[in-house]
Every structure is written in structure tokens, then in C-alpha cells.
Structure prediction request, 225 residues.
Amino acid sequence: MSDVDRLAVFGDIHANLKALDAVLAAIADAGITRAIITGDIVLRGLEPEKCVARVRKTGWPCVEGNTDRRVVGKKVKPKTDIRDMRPGTRTWTKTMLSQKSLDWLDELPAVVEATLGPHRVVAVHGDQTVPAGLVDHDASDHDIIAVMDALGADVLITAHTHSPMIRWVEGRLVVNPGSVGEGTADEPRPTWAWLQSTKKGITAAIEYVDAPLAPPRDKNHRKGE
Prediction:
């Protein structure tokens, strides 16, 4: 085993191909060859099929996100309501995806595990934790430890909130890489994260792609899309 072990984490792509390509390029430039993808590959963005293809081509493990489940599980409505076929909606997204891509999304696991040096890394999307509750900046140490214990995680990777976070709780690491495809009014750059294990322990960092490729979520989408 190498003395240095590195792992990239990213997700919440939301069918934003330019942002995804920029993050993949940044990971390659950093010399990192392993990654975990935290879900929400599709929905709201305009390139769902190409984003699924890019993610599949990496061969890296990916967890299911809530938007991935929504697209797979929702039947396509007849094209009678123009609102249902607006680009980025669930119905439109499903029509843009091949059956092969839909099947792949449908088979994504809720939990992915990896090793980082001697440490057990567990990744979830973060919207369905057991015990229930978001693992975010406002979560209590007690609740985070309960989630990590339930998953048997030395390191927990989570997502969903689009808010980058590196947090230590009782000597255990929690990382949210933020969002590749959807930023905020204050921060329109794609984000990702890396973790590194050495003999001295684990370190982690949030990285920003220096380009405004992750616009804020379109507020015109109806609730739940």
C-alpha cells in the first residue's frame, strides 16, 4: 500500500455538462485517479444523457440521489401540458434519457463504500439518512455520530445540500463536496473535494473551479422538480 492515498468526491451535477467536464478536468490535473460520486446526476440541467455517459465512463462508484430517483420513478406524462415539457423538468429529462441510462440510474445504490488508507469511507447522498436528518452545518455532533455509527463509517461523505463542508466530529471526518452543477448567487463556481490519507492521518479540502459554470437553481421550476 502506498504511503499516500487520495480520493476525490463530487456530485449534485444536475445535468450541467460544462461544469461536470470542468470538475473532471480539475481532478485529472490534480493527479487523482479514484473518486466517489454523490448522486443527483440529472434533473434541472439541459444535458442529462451526456452527463450520465460521462459519469459512467469514469467507472467510479456513484450513489443514487433524490433527483435520480425522481426521474426514474416518474412516468412520462402525455405532451399536453407545455409546463411538463419545459427543459429541465422531470418529464422532459426522462424523455431525453436513453433506456440504458434510465436503467443505470435505477440501479444506483443508496450507499457506496471505499477504503482510504486504513480508513473506511462511506458515501450517501444525504437525503435519506438513518437515523433521519440532514448531515449539514446545523446538525448536532450527536446526530452525526449516530449516522456514522449506523453506517460503520470512519469517514462520511454526504451531499444534497449543495453546501461544501469539512467537519470533524469526535475525531471522525465528514465531507460534503458541494455541488458541481448548481451554485448560488454568491458562489457560481462548481465545487468538489479531495481526501488524502498518509501516515500522519487524513486531510481534506474543498476545491473550486475558477469559472462561473454553476448558476443558481432556476426558481421558475415548480416545487419538487
Summary: The chain has a mean pLDDT of 91. The beta strands are 5-10, 35-37, 112-116, 119-123, 155-157, 165-169, 172-176, 191-198, 201-208.
